[in-house]
Structures are given as C-alpha cells and as structure tokens.
Design goal:
Length: 359
C-alpha cells in the first residue's frame, strides 16, 4: 500500500505544484495519466492506488528555471560532513519519484541535485518545481519507524496517512503542496529541511505522534513545537494546537499528557531549536506537531481511525487558513516548559545512508 501510492501521490503533487498553467494542461492530456489525471479538485476521491512505482513523467514535462553556470557548484559540507542547509533553489522530482533539492541546472536539461543522503549527483530527466505554498513532512519512515503503539501501529505510517490527508485537504483549498516523502522511505532530517528551504513555502509542517509518558490526563497531551525566534512559527503552532486539541478533546477516552502539554519550544544546549526540523530550515516558518500519544493504547486506537485522521488534517487546514486570514494569536502557549533533555545534537543523520536510484 505504501509503495504503490507513490506515483498517484506524486502526480497530484505535481499538478498542485505547477500552479495555474497545470489547470490548462491537465484536462486534455491522457497520454500521461499519472500526472494529468489527478486534478486538485478530484484528489479527495482519488485513492492512491497506482499499480506501479514506475514513473511516467515524460521529458516534455521537464522544465527548469535555474540558470546554467560555467562551473556547477559543489555541495558545501559542515565539519561533520553534513551538507549545510540553504544551498539549493527548487527541487527536482526525479523519474524514480524522489524529491531532490536542486543545486544547479546543467547543460542538456540535466540537474545537479542534493540526493536524499545529502550527496551531489547529476541526473537526467525528472521535473523541476520552483516553489510551493506548503511543504509537509511525514516524520520518520523506512528503517526509522518512530514510535510504535502496543497495537503495532508505526508512527511512520500514521504520520504518512495523516499527512496525505492534510495534503489533499490543502490542495482542495487551492494551495500547492510538496511532501518530503510519499512512501515508506527514510529521508535524513537535513534533506527534509533542505526540501523546505529550496521551495520557499509559506510554512513547513512536520507531522508526528508522541510517545513516552503514561501520566493520565483529563485532556489530550497535544504538543505543538515552534521555532524559538519566529513569531509566525509561534502563531501558526498556536493555531494548529487550538484546532487539533479542540478536535481531540471531543473524545472521551483515557488520555496521557505531560504537565505542560501545549504550544511550546524545546531549546538545545546552545539555546537554539533542539529539533532539526525547526532549526535546520530556519528561514522557513516551521512547526513540529505531536498530535497525540501513540504509546497510549486508547489514543493509538483513536488515531488509527481514518475519520479521526481526517479530522486532524481538516483542523490543521483550518488553522492555516486562520493564520493567513486573521490575526488570531492561537493558544496553548507554555512560557516555561519542563526540561525535556538535550539528547544528541544530531548531525542530520546522513550516516549509513544509501541513496536510491534517482534516474
Ligand atoms: Zn516522531
């Protein structure tokens, strides 16, 4: 299920990402069904059920707004060998379905890209996307399952299901969307952050479910993390908290929560953002959502329901629309969060990473 979803998802994503021009092209094209058959207005009724992961993007759909330099740039690495974020502009959807930030266009329609593992590679084919309204990040994936509920639900799968619903709802609302992954694959955080920066979106939202506490609570333990230095991140997080907490709080189940659940920050040792998905894409308004506790069986059961996943997706869209159209401040703000530990500093985790075929 997870792997076959890729192509249709990608098609919808590309149609959404290409703006008004795709509306003219889409209805008349039947020879490239994966890209053209999924219009934003029909995505809610189109189940991701493509029979193959083989891409059908044709060379005629490839375009690039990047200029071609005489000497293509190389990825700049930090002292730990991890690429520095903020080096790319736009992404290439490779013919194998991967989202790769673009360092440079090359002669012959090729592109020099930042691979999923954070390496430089020159590849042919694919489709360039310069920017989108929102970049969505389903946390974990592949060899990194994230939290696993006692009933067996993997956070990576739940994150993807919720994010796909959120993506569809945003497309229905008229926004263009890119996801950092569309299947059950591992993408290092540094690459997720670069995808966000490369596309210069209104916001970057990383979708997660929590684990760890068994402190019973009368209300959901929803945690919405924002960037320490971004008032916009704080307001968006507060609005997503308000809407998603409101949805979950309708359910009378056994909740667990930390005492300071709410809209908050988690600093690292240096006073910056602890979470890489907030720190690394610093110029982009970013939010890390921990909607509920997957480690709590009653919550695992609740959020495994597609209708509840849809409610969370719709709540997030509502929060985004309030963020864009009102001055509402949001709520749930925790002035002095409990210390949650520093943990490893995190180098972006590109170690032991094997790049997939990109062409
Ligand atoms: Zn997670």
């Amino acid at each position: 299920m997870r792997t076959v979803a890729c192509v249709v998802v990608l098609g919808a994503l590309l149609v959404a990402a290409c703006g008004p021009s795709s509306v003219e092209v889409a209805p008349t094209e039947v020879t490239t069904p994966v890209i053209e058959s999924v219009l934003p207005s029909t995505t809610t009724t189109t189940a991701p059920q493509a029979p193959t992961t083989t891409p059908t993007t044709t060379s005629t759909t490839t375009s690039s707004t990047t200029t071609i330099p005489d000497v293509p740039p190389e990825l700049v690495l930090d002292d730990q060998g991890v690429p520095m974020n903020g080096q790319t502009d736009g992404v290439l959807i490779t013919e194998t379905g991967w989202v790769t930030p673009v360092l440079s266009g090359l002669a012959g329609g090729r592109h020099r890209v930042w691979t999923p593992c954070g390496r430089t590679q020159d590849i042919a084919g694919g489709r360039f996307v310069g920017s989108v309204d929102f970049v969505l990040d389903p946390g974990h994936g592949g060899s990194e399952p994230g939290a696993v509920g006692r009933g067996g639900l993997r956070e990576a799968d739940l994150n993807l299901d919720v994010t796909l619903k959120l993506r569809n709802a945003l497309i229905d609302a008229g926004y263009s969307v890119m996801m950092t992954r569309q299947t059950d694959v591992r993408v290092p955080i540094v690459t997720r952050a670069e995808i966000a920066q490369a596309l210069d979106p209104i916001a970057f939202i990383s979708v997660h479910f929590n684990a760890g506490t068994d402190a019973v609570s009368a209300t959901p333990g929803t945690e919405m993390y924002h960037q320490i230095d971004s008032p916009d991140s704080k307001r968006l997080a507060g609005l997503i908290y308000e809407e998603s907490f409101g949805v979950l709080d309708q359910f009378d189940i056994r909740w667990v929560a930390l005492g300071d659940a709410g809209t908050l920050v988690r600093p690292n040792r240096e006073g910056g953002d602890y979470y890489g998905v907030l720190r690394r894409p610093a110029p982009v308004v970013s939010v890390l959502a921990e909607f509920a506790y997957l480690s709590n069986p009653s919550e695992e059961q609740l959020v495994s329901e597609p209708v509840v996943q849809q409610m969370l997706a719709d709540a997030t869209v509502k929060a985004i629309e309030r963020f864009l159209t009102t001055d509402d401040p949001g709520s749930g703000f925790i002035d002095d969060p409990i210390f949650r530990g520093y943990g490893p500093s995190g180098a972006g985790r590109t170690t032991n990473c094997s790049d997939p075929p990109l062409e």
